[in-house]
């Protein structure tokens, strides 16, 4: 899930670990396909949950993103040595057990760096 370039790890994708209800993935603008567990989300893919649905997405650094209903995110371009997500709409709960670091969360009107 991560690639190495000159000693740097680049985070490039995510995996849908859990899915309750209905979720969809868009690999091209405007076309939505049903999502399923163990589905790999690549850079640029968009993922959304629908009514009465929720999902858990694992990033390449093993961080977990719990998404509530009507959540919509995009997997951003690879970023050296850090992970992140573009939350376009909805509710996101972020959890990780790794050492302290930075997590980039881009929102429609702002970009937040979450430090732990």
Describe it:
Helices cover 0% and strands 58% of the residues. It is built from no helices and 14 strands. It has a seven-stranded mixed beta sheet with strand order 5-4-7-10-11-13-14, with no helix packed on it. Strands 6-3-8-9-12 form a five-stranded antiparallel beta sheet, with no helix packed on it. Strands 1-2 form a two-stranded antiparallel ribbon. It has strands at residues 2-5, 8-11, 13-20, 23-28, 31-34, 40-42, 46-49, 54-59, 64-67, 72-74, 83-89, 92-95, 102-106, 111-115. Strand 8 (54-59) and strand 9 form a beta hairpin. It is globular. It has one domain. The protein is mainly beta and 116 residues long. The model is unreliable at 1-10 (pLDDT under 50). The two termini are 23 Å apart.
Q: Nearest-angstrom radius of gyration?
A: 13 Å
Give the helix tally.
Answer: 0
Structural category is mainly beta
Helix coverage percent:
under 10%
The structural domain count equals: 1
Helix-strand pattern: EEEEEEEEEEEEEE
E-strand count:
14
* Mean pLDDT metric: 79
Task: Set down the secondary structure blueprint.
Elements: E1 2-5, E2 8-11, E3 13-20, E4 23-28, E5 31-34, E6 40-42, E7 46-49, E8 54-59, E9 64-67, E10 72-74, E11 83-89, E12 92-95, E13 102-106, E14 111-115
Parallel strand pairs: 11-13
Antiparallel strand pairs: 1-2, 3-6, 3-8, 4-5, 4-7, 7-10, 8-9, 9-12, 10-11, 13-14
Key structural traits:
mainly beta; 116 residues; single chain; seven-stranded mixed sheet; globular; disordered N terminus; five-stranded antiparallel sheet
Write a compact overview of the structure shown.
With 116 residues, this protein is an all-beta fold. Helix content is 0%, strand content 58%. The chain is globular and about 35 Å long.
């Amino acid at each position: 899930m991560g690639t190495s370039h000159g000693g740097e790890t680049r985070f490039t994708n995510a995996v849908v670990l859990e899915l309750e209800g209905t979720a969809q993935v868009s690999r091209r603008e405007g076309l939505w396909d049903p999502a399923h567990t163990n589905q790999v989300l690549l850079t640029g893919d968009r993922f959304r949950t629908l009514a009465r649905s929720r999902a858990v997405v694992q990033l390449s650094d093993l961080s977990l993103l719990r998404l509530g209903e009507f959540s919509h995110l995009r997997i951003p371009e690879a970023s050296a040595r850090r992970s992140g997500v573009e939350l376009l709409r909805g509710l996101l709960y972020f959890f990780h057990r790794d050492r302290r670091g930075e997590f980039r969360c881009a929102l429609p009107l702002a970009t937040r760096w979450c430090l732990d």
